[in-house]
Design brief:
The chain has 461 residues and is α/β, with parallel strands linked by helices. It contains 12 helices and 22 strands. Helix 3 runs parallel beside helix 7.
C-alpha cells in the first residue's frame, strides 16, 4: 500500500460540510431552515414553543394522550405537561421491551423574568424590575429592544396570555450609562458593569391627568388593564418574560447563517420535533421526543427533565404493552439534543481547536460536558459513541466531535446526566452556536439541517 493510501486509511480528515453534502440537499436544507425560523418567531418562551409544537403535531395526526388509551404500532400521541413541557411518541413496530429511541432537548432559554412586584415609578419614569433567568451576560441586555411574553393568572381562575411589543407595537428597553459619565463604570469588569438590580425595563414616561402620586405608573397600569384586564396585584401570579424583540433572520452576504434569540436550545428542540413529525414510516422501536423546560436553571421543577412526568409518560406507554418500564429504559437510547460552542477565531484563546466544533461541519457529538474534571457530566461510553457514528455515517449525516472549550476554561451541562441516571444510554449531540446565551445567537444552516437528519436517523434506527 502506498504512503498516500496509508494516510487516507489511518488519519481522520476534517472537511467542511459543504464539500461533503450532496448538491441535491441544498433545497431541502433551505426549506427546513425556513420552517425553523418560523418556529423561533412563534416560540419566544417555553409556553409558546409547546403551543406551536402541539399545533404542528396535530397537523401531522398526533392526538393528545389520555391514560389508559389503547395504543398500537404507528399511533402518534403527545402529552402537554402544564403548558411548559411537551412529550411525543410514535409507537414502533417492536415491543417496548426492546427499548425506545429518544431525543431530549430543552425549550427554555436565558431571559429576564419580571419580579412578582415589578412596576414602580422613579423620577416620573415607570420601570419594571426583573430577575434574570439562566446564564446571561448582563451587559448584553441593555440598550436593545425588548418584548414581554407570558401569562397572568387571575384569582377567578382565568389565565390571560400577554404579548407586549410584538410587531409594530412599542418596544421596551433597559438603559445604560452614557460614556461621558461612565469613567467609573468602565473600570469595572464585564460581569460588574451592569448589576442584576439595574436590569430595570423602562415602561413609560407620560403621567395620567390628576394629582395622584405615581401618575406615570398609573398610566402604564391603565394601559395594561385596558388591554389585558389585570391589575397590579395580579403581577403576583404572573409569568412574564422579557425577551429580545428581534426576529429570526438570515446572516451573512451568502445567507448561510441564521441569527436569532433562543437557538439554545430551540435549534435542537425543533430538530427533534420536526424529525419525529416527518417520519414517513413506522419506526422499528418506539420513537420519543422530549421538549423540557428549566434546563437553564438545573432542569428542576415539574416541567424540567428531573420531573417524573417523563417517567410517568414512559410507564404509561409500557403499561399499554404490559412491559415493565425499567426493562424498557435499560434498553433505550437517548440523544441529548443540546447545542455546543462553535469555534470563534475572535476568541480562540479559550478553545482547544483540535477538539472544538466548527460552523458548517455538521452536528456536534459531545462525549462529555461538565466543567473542569468533567464535573456534572454524563460521560458516554466508547461503545455508545461508536453506535452513533455508525448510525450517522449510514444515513449520510455530516457530523463532528465537539468539546465546549479548553480544560478549566469553563464548562456547562445538558439534560444528558438526568437521562443517564434513569439507566438510559445517552450521548450529547447538537448544533454548534456562536455567541451562545447572548440575546442574539448565530448558527449555520448546514448544521441545523444535519441535526435534523441526525434525529431522523436515531428515530428510525
Amino acid at each position: 500500500m502506498e504512503a498516500k493510501e496509508w494516510k487516507e486509511k489511518l488519519l481522520m480528515e476534517k472537511k467542511n460540510g459543504y464539500d461533503r453534502m450532496p448538491a441535491g440537499e441544498r433545497e431541502a436544507m433551505n426549506s427546513y431552515c425556513q420552517g425553523y425560523k418560523a418556529f423561533l418567531d412563534a416560540g419566544k418562551t417555553e409556553r409558546e414553543c409547546v403551543r406551536e409544537g402541539i399545533r404542528l403535531a396535530e397537523e401531522k395526526g398526533f392526538r393528545a394522550y389520555e391514560r389508559g388509551m389503547e395504543l398500537k404500532s404507528g399511533d402518534k400521541v403527545y402529552l402537554n405537561n402544564r403548558g411548559k413541557m411537551l412529550l411525543l411518541a410514535v409507537i414502533g413496530q417492536k415491543s417496548l421491551a426492546e427499548g425506545a429511541q429518544i431525543a431530549a432537548a430543552h425549550i427554555d432559554s436565558p431571559r429576564l423574568d419580571l419580579k412578582p412586584s415589578p412596576l414602580y415609578e422613579d423620577s416620573e419614569l415607570a420601570y419594571l424590575k426583573t430577575h434574570y433567568y439562566g446564564g446571561i451576560r448582563k451587559y448584553q441586555w441593555v440598550t436593545i429592544p425588548l418584548e414581554i411574553h407570558g401569562v397572568v393568572a387571575l384569582k377567578d381562575g382565568k389565565t390571560v396570555n400577554v404579548v407586549i411589543g410584538e410587531g409594530s407595537e412599542p418596544k421596551l428597553v433597559i438603559n445604560d450609562l452614557l460614556p461621558h459619565l461612565g469613567a467609573e463604570q468602565s473600570k469595572k469588569t464585564l460581569a460588574e458593569g451592569i448589576a442584576g438590580e439595574q436590569l430595570n425595563i423602562m415602561a413609560g414616561s407620560e403621567p395620567m391627568e390628576g394629582e395622584e402620586k405615581d401618575r406615570v405608573k398609573l398610566a402604564v397600569m391603565k394601559v395594561l388593564y385596558e388591554k389585558y384586564g389585570f391589575t397590579e396585584e395580579d403581577f403576583i401570579s404572573a409569568e412574564l418574560e422579557a425577551v429580545p424583540a428581534a426576529k429570526a433572520t438570515d446572516i451573512g452576504l451568502d445567507a448561510s447563517l441564521i441569527g436569532a434569540y433562543g437557538h439554545d436550545d430551540r435549534v435542537c428542540g425543533y430538530a427533534a420535533l420536526r424529525a419525529l413529525l416527518d417520519l414517513e414510516e413506522v419506526p422499528g422501536k418506539t420513537a420519543v421526543c422530549v421538549l423540557a423546560d428549566k434546563e437553564e436553571i438545573g432542569s428542576v421543577g415539574v416541567s424540567g427533565m428531573l420531573t417524573h412526568a417523563f417517567d410517568t409518560f414512559m410507564e404509561d406507554l409500557c403499561d399499554s404493552q404490559n412491559v415493565p418500564v425499567r426493562a424498557c429504559l435499560e434498553k433505550s437510547f437517548c440523544l441529548s439534543a443540546d447545542v455546543t460552542a462553535a469555534y470563534d477565531p475572535n476568541f480562540g484563546d479559550v478553545y482547544e481547536k483540535r477538539n472544538s466544533s466548527f460552523v458548517n461541519y455538521g452536528i456536534g457529538l459531545c462525549k462529555y460536558t461538565g466543567s473542569r474534571g468533567k464535573g456534572g457530566a454524563s460521560d458516554a461510553s466508547a461503545e455508545l459513541v461508536a453506535y452513533v457514528r455508525r448510525i450517522f455515517d449510514e444515513n449520510g449525516v455530516i457530523w463532528q466531535m465537539a468539546e465546549l472549550g479548553k480544560v478549566d476554561a469553563g464548562g456547562g451541562g445538558t439534560v444528558a446526566a438526568y437521562m443517564a441516571n434513569r439507566n438510559i444510554d445517552t450521548l450529547d449531540a447538537g448544533v454548534p452556536v456562536l455567541a451562545m446565551h447572548a440575546p442574539f445567537e448565530v448558527v449555520a444552516k448546514l448544521d441545523c439541517y444535519m441535526t435534523y437528519k441526525g434525529m431522523t436517523a436515531v428515530y428510525m434506527n
